[in-house]
Amino acid sequence: MTELIVFIVATLMVLVGAVGVIVRHNPVHAALSLVLTLFGVAVHFVALQAHFLAAVEVIVYAGAIVVLFLFVIMLLGVDEVEDLRVDPLKIQRSIGPIVGIGVVALVGTAVIVSRGLFRANQQISAPEDNIRALARSVFSDSVFAFELTSVLLVIAVVGAVLLARRLPKKEER
Fold first, then answer.
1. What is the average pLDDT value for the chain, to the nearest integer?
2. Is the dihedral of CA 150, 152, 154, 160 positive or negative?
3. pTM for this one?
4. What is the DSSP code string of 17-48?
5. Contact criterion met (CB below 8 Å) for 159 and 74
6. Best label site of 6, 47, 69, 99, fewest CB within 10 Å?
7. What is the pLDDT of residue 66?
8. CA triplet 148, 128, 142: central angle to 5 degrees?
9. What CATH number matches the domain at 1-79, 1.20.120.1200, 3.30.559.70, 3.30.300.20, 3.40.50.10890?
């Protein structure tokens, strides 16, 4: 019964935080809603007896990544109004698709190369082997998810930059 209550509360944390990320107009409030979502996921990890993943979720994602998002938002100056019709870099629209294709090619190459290098088919006999098996698993079987996560984090930072830019009000044009 306790497990069910923990599951329901953690799931509500994740859902309320995710909806908060989407509906908040203030980027700082959206980042704080993301923290709520990440803490809910960490509670799920604890319920599944994955304490290391819960700690990583809180320290790396809720701590470092959200702080990075907030740093980018604050660095851009959310209070300043910018004209979205003016591109600060004229070449960025033509280089964007090329960079996107390059990122997809790099992720694909990493997946193909890592499939042949690492295999997690060993029996675990010592505590040091746990770390090796985890590394082999992350960089062989789960390398696509690992690389995709890094790409999604970059996309999230770009999204934070775009959210911080505002359309000018009619009287300021």
1. 78
2. negative
3. 0.49
4. HHHHHHH-SSHHHHHHHHHHHHHHHHHHHHHT
5. no
6. 99
7. 83
8. 15
9. 1.20.120.1200
Three-state DSSP class for 160? helix
CA-nearest of 63, 27, 67, 71 to 42 is 63
Tokens standing for 107? 């992720």
| pLDDT of 79 higher than 60 | no
Q: Quick one: pLDDT at residue 121?
A: 47
CA dihedral sign of residues 55, 60, 61, 63: positive
pLDDT at position 122 is 47
pLDDT digits (tens, 9 = 90+) for 24-42: 888 888 888 999 999 999 9
